[in-house]
Amino acid sequence: MTTGTLITVAPTGAESAKAEVPALPVTLDELLLTAKECEALGAAVIHVHIRDDEARPTLDQGRLRETVTALRESTDLIVQLSSGGAVTDPEAHRLAVVDAAPDMASCTMGTVNFGDDVFLNRWEFIVDLHTRMQERGVVPEYEIFELGHLTALQRLLGKYGLPHGGHVHVDFVMGVPGGMPGTTATLVAAQQMLRDLPEGTTFSATGIGRSTIPVMLASLSAGGHLRVGMEDTVTYAKGRPVESNMQLVARAVGFAQLAQRPPLTTAQARTLLGV
Ligand code: KMH
Ligand code: ZN
């Protein structure tokens, strides 16, 4: 059954350098401005990576807490912290993200080649993250970079139980060099595999780089939700750099409206996700 569209903005990520992508929000002020404007356009969730004073990715606990508080004060967005961080972040720092008391945190369901790097997610680490989120009342978004990550999720839920809130929401991250491709056929295959997960499981999808638009259209037509933002693409169209996260959210909102699946409000999104 299709409903409105949950729109998540992932404004920063850990991979792009501010020097190369000047429009990337890296300071708290830039993040707050982006968050407010994206919320006004129709985003309901913000997937947050933070940077240090030199604009390098960080998982500093103090900064994470300050960011969660500031986003709560300035917006009604659901605050989802990245537990993925950067590929170089140690597991202990990634686990501690949950202690910053966000509404949600990402939880990647397996290891994946990530360009020239490896995004490592050992089984024991996944179990620790999942159970820590259950204990702290943080709702996970399970990040799926490969179809096999859905099998791992089935195993996780079977052995360790449902997440806090009881609702399962996954995000297909498609088109990472080394992960599943950002194609309609793959999205449909991933959606079919949701049959093995608890009834009512919902999904968002995002396509990295040039797969952004095909994945967005495929997800809308398959009843899925959308994640967009400069974490995932810094090119708006061939030869045209993204000007802002707002530009990407506005395009997603336009597509969702064309599909007659308008953006969910933040209140509707909280209900859907069990936040
Ligand atoms: N930056 C990637 C290595 C997440 O946020 O949970 C991991 C990532 C996934 O972005
Ligand atoms: Zn991320």
UniProtKB/TrEMBL annotation:
GO terms for molecular function: 3-keto-5-aminohexanoate cleavage activity; metal ion binding. Its cofactor is Zn(2+). Keywords: Metal-binding, Transferase, Zinc. It comes from the Bacteria. This is Uncharacterized conserved protein, DUF849 family.
